TrEMBL record:
Family annotation (Pfam families): ADH_N (PF08240), ADH_zinc_N (PF00107)
PROSITE patterns, alphabetized: QOR_ZETA_CRYSTAL
Enzyme class at the top of the EC tree: oxidoreductase
Designated name of the protein: NADPH:quinone reductase
Originating species: Aromatoleum bremense
Length: 326
């Protein structure tokens, strides 16, 4: 028997229940995994609220790290006793648990230098950051980018990685406290989006040119300003919707505003190929192990306190990464 957070209906944080569940033996292609730490991600709130529909009842959470306790028939990529991490979406749903059965395919072996707690705090955020700065656009040293939510989990990793690549980072934040955090991780210029016109400030900072790329995880409330912050033939990367889905718009605007590019990527498509995923993970792990990228775990919760954790996350009270300690 084990414990898990499950939902029987969609809605606010209060729909999550702490339950006792049974975990059996792994079947073909599966492993039984004992969690040591579980990641808290904004995507978890989408499954809970129903924005991402799933059959009910169901578990929550798509990211965790732990130790393989048993392997099923045909599993060759991991063995009993291996320390592993994983992230994904529907195929890994159910991470809010002390132990579970999970397909072996999404599991990534951890190097000795990376703890399970660090892995749970960075696998989704780190791989997201990896594809944003290493795969999605041919960024060159000297380029300037705009990064929304610069003090968030992805934001802090992107800031640090961007500096390794020689980029100039303009970051948006909501408070002086978050501005200090962003600056400490390599953000060159800070815009307070609640009291400043983001696009106007970007033009001021870039002498009217605009930025090469906008990394926008906010969505609805920032989309228009993000588009207006781009230089000619720049790229708008809408990779999240924390403020809600982007409203429909006429693609002709992209031409009128400078022959812009727009993409709405998903992490799943950048880690679907295990070989590509392992290359991205290896680069991430190397930077973290060497101290070139620091993973800030600024909130730790007990798994049974998931309701409070979701409330904090949705209220914008968190910075960096948050984890559940199992």
């Amino acid at each position: 028997m084990t414990n898990a957070i499950r939902i029987h209906e969609t809605g606010g944080p209060e729909v999550m229940r702490w339950e006792t569940v049974e975990v059996g033996a792994p079947g073909p292609g599966q492993v039984r995994l004992r969690h040591e730490a579980v990641g808290l991600n904004f995507a978890d709130t989408y499954f809970r609220s129903g924005l991402y529909p799933v059959p009910l009842p169901n578990g929550l959470g798509v990211e965790a790290a732990g130790v393989v306790e048993a392997v099923g028939e045909g599993v060759t990529n991991v063995a009993e006793g291996d320390r592993v991490t994983y992230t994904g979406f529907v195929n890994t749903l159910g991470a809010y648990s002390t132990a579970r059965i999970i397909p072996a395919t999404p599991l990534i072996k951890l190097p000795d230098a990376i703890s399970c707690e660090t892995a749970a705090a960075m696998t989704m955020r780190g791989l997201t950051s990896a594809y944003l700065v290493r795969r999605i656009w041919p960024l060159q040293a000297g380029d300037t980018v705009l990064l929304h939510a610069a003090a968030g989990g992805v934001g802090l990793i992107v800031c640090q990685w961007a500096k390794l690549l020689g980029l100039t980072v303009i970051g948006t934040v909501s408070s002086e406290e978050k501005a200090a955090v962003a600056r400490a991780h390599g953000c060159d210029h800070v815009i307070f989006y609640r009291r400043e016109d983001v696009a106007a400030r970007v033009r001021e900072i870039t002498n009217g040119v605009g930025v090469s790329v906008v990394f926008d995880s906010v969505g609805k409330t920032t989309f228009a300003g993000s588009i207006d912050s781009l230089k000619r033939r720049g790229l708008m990367v809408c990779f999240g919707t924390t403020s809600g889905p982007v409203e429909p718009f006429n693609p002709q605007q992209l031409a009128m505003k400078g022959s812009l590019y727009l993409t709405r990527p998903a992490l799943a498509d950048y880690i679907a190929d295990p070989a590509e995923r392992d290359v991205l993970a290896g680069e991430l792990f190397d930077h973290v192990a060497a101290g070139r990228i620091r993973i800030e775990i600024n909130q730790r919760y007990a798994l049974q306190d998931a309701v409070q954790a979701h409330r904090d996350l949705e209220a914008g009270k968190t910075t960096g990464s948050s984890v559940f300690i199992v």
